[in-house]
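Q: Sequence in, structure out?
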Amino acid sequence: MKKISITLLAGLLALGAMAQKDNNKTLLWKISGNGLAKASYLYGTIHMLCEDDAGLSKNMKEAIATSDEIYFEVDMDNLFEMMGVLGKMKMKGDTTLKDLLSAEDYKKVKNFFDAKGSMLPFSMLETYKPILAASTLETGSLPCENTAMMEQVIMTEAKKWNKKINGLETMSFQAGLLDSIPYKLQAEQLVSYVNKAGTTEGDDDEMKAMFKAYNDQDLKKLEMLMVETAPGMSAFTDTFLYHRNQKWVAKLKSILPAKSVVIAVGAGHLPGEKGVINLLRNAGYTVTPVENKLHDNREI
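A: Exactly. Output:
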């Protein structure tokens, strides 16, 4: 299951992408040129990571402090929208996991969730789209007790400076994207994940490698890992990554000339020919890497 849901966790909910041309290891990029009066910044996030790894560099803090507004994939400061999207997390037509699996597989998944534990009770999760149900397990697979969302860390810093929070798209739109993957396929992948859990075929090593690549700020490595570990997502790459990248850049063309912003989106949206970095460059902007270490920061 992680072959699908990690892609979403790191790309949709943050990693993904193909072909990275820049060898600079950083998650922070400066957007300038093309007539802009003031630079903006692009930052690659991950939905969940260990709290000790969720710090902000001096350069990132400065980018937030000097910007006019902050843009995430969705407006994380909109509580009304966040509450409203809960219904969109459920499968359509009152479908439940029991409808999609054999009695044996359903019992196996239920027992696994009950034993493993998750953020929500199984009685609720079995009505959710299986990819989302699996993501509640994956956050517990991190090699640490305390976790953090990079988006939340950035938003906390932005609030110190009274920055307005915006979204490039809505949460309802994101949740609706999951309907493009047949529920039956999602459920079957969930069973596959349960079958592999705790065996030598498990995906923990792959997940650890992805988090290491993120912490190393190595977009090229992330790309390679996604190509190797998420072949099942290939049929949905356009929907989850490329089409959204294009829409974001089209929206940014109207935003960037008017104000300075920090754009923080899943790291998997940044690299590649169809990634946000390259699309911005194709639109005439200069996109340059900025060092993003916790100490001794400078533009590369």
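Residues 2-85+146-180+204-290 form one domain.
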